[in-house]
Amino acid sequence: MAGLELLSDQGYRVDGRRAGELRKIQARMGVFAQADGSAYIEQGNTKALAVVYGPHEIRGSRARALPDRALVNCQYSSATFSTGERKRRPHGDRKSCEMGLQLRQTFEAAILTQLHPRSQIDIYVQADGGTYAACVNAATLAVLDAGIPMRDFVCACSAGFVDGTALADLSHVEEAAGGPQLALALLPASGQIALLEMDARLHEDHLERVLEAAAQAARDVHTLLDRVVRQHVREASILLGD
Amino acid sequence: MKETPLSNCERRFLLRAIEEKKRLDGRQTYDYRNIRISFGTDYGCCIVELGKTRVLGQVSCELVSPKLNRATEGILFFNLELSQMAAPAFEPGRQSDLLVKLNRLMERCLRNSKCIDTESLCVVAGEKVWQIRVDLHLLNHDGNIIDAASIAAIVALCHFRRPDVSVQGDEVTLYTPEERDPVPLSIHHMPICVSFAFFQQGTYLLVDPNEREERVMDGLLVIAMNKHREICTIQSSGGIMLLKDQVLRCSKIAGVKVAEITELILKALENDQKVRKEGGKFGFAESIANQRITAFKMEKAPIDTSDVEEKAEEIIAEAEPPSEVVSTPVLWTPGTAQIGEGVENSWGDLEDSEKEDDEGGGDQAIILDGIKMDTGVEVSDIGSQGGPKHWKNGADAPIILSDSEEEEMIILEPDKNPKKIRTQTTSAKQEKAPSKKPVKRRKKKRAAN
Q: What ipTM goes with this model?
């Protein structure tokens, strides 16, 4: 896109944000009645819906049961109307498989699987705009809604690098421009990185700044998600009449 | 077939060795295995060996119509296949997780980093572009597939020559290799993946894990860089928790390694280029040195065997006869006694005199131990009766040949005994008890010695 400045001279991005600002996040928990846990999150224009079933008995082959831990199963699908061109095959293609694998890896590290041996936890995510960060945030809320014990929140955010400045929370325009993109999933309390993924060329010297920007943005996401969870619990307890 | 699980012993051994900064093959923490690059006769074909991991890379090209939203760019297609010859666990239906992960990593490393100028692959905008297809086949899996595959891909791409095309107005002419020399692809930079394996929740890290180390690792971090120290891809997998400074440290190490590997690649390409120009022989057949085809053949060590018979007779004549077994009970503590010293390991000695001695000692011991057994006197009584029975059946006592506690010991005798012994041992569990006892007794004897 010629002529489109990702970062103006005054430091404003295309949508008017500053370099470290996040997009507006709105989230709701408990969207589905029949699932054990569910959540819906909107991050700017990206919308993600996550549903959690479990822990329950292993379906399918019993041989996959792990004797000391729970099995976490994640599936990702993107809506056909989510991208610029209508996608004909939302599941089963390589990108969805990879996203599912990465989600599984992130949550296997975060969920205390030792507490539920020989069981299975299913996480289904459907995203519009397909970014990893929104999926992870939605899945975190859904797992919390289902009451499955986790070490800590898993907060994810993307970051990029343009003109010597690190940008946090990339929108679609910024992603499509083709600069370096970093997706980071963080456990905020300990600062440990559950998953790190980066694309396109970035000079090694700038890596630290981009990592720091992504980590800070993830911590901001954590504050927001924390507020959402507390609000939800407050509502639930009011309805129960305490 | 299913992968053989790693035994706990091996796992512990590997982890302990890593804690002491030792690796199985003697490398240091940050060392790579030997990399060997060999080229085939066609342009674009190469085999990369990283230690024992082998990847074959082949590049081919085709004229196709471009994608609708990218009308002026060529198409790059990557495909990594885990051949069944690479490891017994790789079967056509079974490898999906690993395959998806590796393929996506290759795609992101090579396509998203724009190492190849796709606009130069355009012939006629909107109608005809080159589609470059890179096929990678894993021939042998000894760990760290991703590094070997990325090296193979980039080497094959650098080595490849596509047919020359010229456009004059509306006319497009495609020249065959005979008419005009084929043209190399325009490659901006060479991204190479470096893998770091983490152990013990991120306390220890190794570069270039081999297959055993991969099995015990907690997680893997792959960083793809080029020699200008630009990071092309980072991917952490396996559920490890990283810290920011670990990532930064790994990227520094990766920078150093990538510089070395890039040098190696350039040298290999140069050598091949030189050989082809000078008209020398090239190709896979030439790259296998003559001594290596028969690599597992050892030269015969010259040994003079003419006087073996005499020497053997001497040794037997000078050897003392085995000591006789004396059946006097030795009281260790009240309640435990030992009679005899158990059956000797008389492998190879088939003389009758010895067998009779053993038989005598054996019989008495069985009866005594049988009475002392705690678990159900009846059981052992039956067993002890069954025991001596089958010992006495033939003139020969069964000769115990091994120390193992195997239940069904089938002792090979030239006589009629083997069948009888077998039926008795398989018929009832009690029979197994007597056969176990002689073994236990032998162990006591060893301990006393």
A: 0.83
| pLDDT tens-digit readout, B294-324 | 556 666 777 777 778 888 888 888 887 777 7
- Is B113 within 8 Å of A108 when comparing Cβ atoms? no
Give the one of A97, A193, A200 whose C-beta lies nearest to B242's C-beta.
A193
Residue B243 has which token pair? 């810290």
Q: Does B240 touch chain A (CB under 8 A)?
A: yes
- Nearest partner of B259 among B229, B239, B238, B283, judged by Cα: B229
Using a CB-CB distance cutoff of 8 angstroms, which residues of chain B are in contact with residue A197?
Answer: 234-236
> Residues B144-182, buried b or exposed e (16+ Cβ, 10 A)?
bbbbbbbbbbbbbbbbbbbbebeeeeeeeeeeeeeeeee
Place of tokens 């297609």: B77
Report pLDDT digits (tens) over A143-194.
999 888 888 899 999 888 888 888 888 887 777 777 888 888 989 988 888 8
Cβ contact A141:A231 at 8 Å: no
Q: To the nearest whole angstrom, how far is the Cα of B108 from the nearest Cα of chain A?
A: 7
* Nearest residue to A213 (alpha-carbon basis) of A180, A168, A171: A168
Query: Is A215 in the B-facing interface, judged by CB distances under 8 Å?
Result: yes
Q: Is the peptide bond before A55 cis (omega within 30 degrees of 0)?
A: yes
pLDDT band, residue B284 (cuts 50/70/90): confident
* Residues ≥6 apart with Cβ < 8 Å to B424: B386, B389, B390, B431
Query: In chain B, what residues touch A85 (CB-CB under 8 Å)?
Result: 69
Instruction: Look at A97 and B247 and tell me if their CB atoms are within 8 Å.
Output: no
Query: Tell me, what's the pLDDT at B92?
Result: 81
**Which residues of chain A neighbour B230 with C-beta distances below 8 Å?**
201-204
- From CA A130, how far away is CA A99, in angstroms rounded? 9
CA atoms within 13 A on the CB side of B424: 24
Model confidence at B349, in pLDDT bands (50, 70, 90)? Answer: low
List all residues 6 or more positions away from B126 whose beta carbon is below 8 Å from its beta carbon.
Answer: B65, B66, B71, B72
The Cα–Cα gap between A150 and A107 comes to 9
Bin B21: left if φ > 0, else alpha if -120 < ψ < 50, else beta.
left
Whole-number Cα distances in Å, B301 to B43, B293, B297, B298, B304: 44, 20, 12, 8, 10
- The helix (H) or strand (E) run that includes residue B59 is strand B53-64
B94 touches chain A (CB under 8 A): no
Distance from CA of B245 to the nearest CA of A (A): 9
Q: What is the pLDDT of residues A28-75, one digit of tens each?
A: 998 888 888 899 998 888 888 888 887 888 877 777 777 778 888 888
Chains A, B: CB pairs < 8 Å: 95
CA distances from residue A99 to A109, A159, A194, B47, B237 in whole angstroms, order as listed: 16, 18, 14, 31, 12
The interface residues of chain B toward chain A in range 110-129, judged by CB-CB distance below 8 A, are: 112-114
CB contact under 8 A, A207 and B252: no
A83 and A93 Cβ atoms separated by less than 8 Å: no
Q: Which 97-126 residues of chain A touch chain B by CB within 8 A?
A: 97-98, 101-102, 105-106, 108-109
Kindly determine whether residue B244 and residue A109, on different chains, have CB atoms separated by under 8 Å.
no
Query: One-letter amino acid identity for B383?
Result: G
Tokens found for residue A131:
């970014």
Residue B115 phi, psi (nearest 5):
-75, -25
Calculate mean pLDDT across residues B117-135: 88
* Interchain pair A84, B237: CB under 8 A: no
Among B103, B228, B233, beta carbon nearest to A198: B233
A195 touches chain B (CB under 8 A): yes
